[in-house]
Amino acid sequence: MPEIAEYVNHGARFITPAVVEKVLRKLPLWKAEFTQIAAPKYPHLVDQLEFLANAVEDFAEGAYKDLPYSALTAAVFALTYAHKKVDIIPDYINETGRADDSSVVRAVLIMHEKAFARYATANGFEWSRITSRP
User: Fold this and answer.
1) How far, in Å, are 9, 29, 41, 82, 90 from residue 21 at the CA level?
2) Which residues of 4-17 are buried (b: 16+ CB within 10 A; e: fewer)?
3) Are 20 and 76 in contact (CB under 8 A)?
4) Which residues contact 18 (CB under 8 A, 6 or more apart)?
5) How far apart (Å, rounded) are the C-alpha atoms in residues 57 and 54?
6) Is 1 exposed, middle or buried (0-12, 13-18, 19+ CB in 10 A)?
7) If you average pLDDT over every residue of the chain, what do you get?
8) Strand, coil or helix: what is 113?
9) 3-state SS of the chain: helix, strand, coil percent to 5?
10) Distance between CA 64 and CA 121 in Å, rounded?
11) Is residue 133 over pLDDT 50?
12) Which end of the chain has fewer beta carbons closer than 10 Å to its terminal beta carbon, N or C?
């Protein structure tokens, strides 16, 4: 996990307010696309992506102001990464195509666990359902 965390931190450094704005405009479409992910080996990926998208939207709209900027940029990086079809492991590869997406999303949730757990509590999400198998 340290390599993935380093990768996320590196990528998040390039997330600027302008990038956040671009992602915000695309998020409704991306959220719809994320619901179509068929990744049985990664059963929480869709819910985790939706959670991160909601956190980004709520922060940007001012509905939740307590998200640290580092958590916001990491979430935007993870959403952008998951949206790309060709990344470290191309999404079209059966069985493993979403492994890297899941790892990046999971790293973001772990690295910023306290911040996202507070967001979940404040917004009525059950944090344990976002982070673990039911």
Assistant:
1) 20, 14, 32, 17, 26
2) bbebbbebbeebee
3) yes
4) none
5) 5
6) exposed
7) 93
8) helix
9) 65, 0, 35
10) 12
11) no
12) C
Token code pair at residue 108: 């973001």
Token representation of residue 49: 């992506």
| Cβ count near 60 (within 10 Å) | 18
- How many helices (H) and strands (E) the chain has is answered by 7, 0
Residue with tokens 């359902």: 129
- Tokens representing residue 50 in the block: 């939706």
The answer to whether 28 touches 60, Cβ cutoff 8 Å, is: no
87-120 per-position pLDDT tens digit: 888 888 888 889 999 999 999 999 999 999 999 9
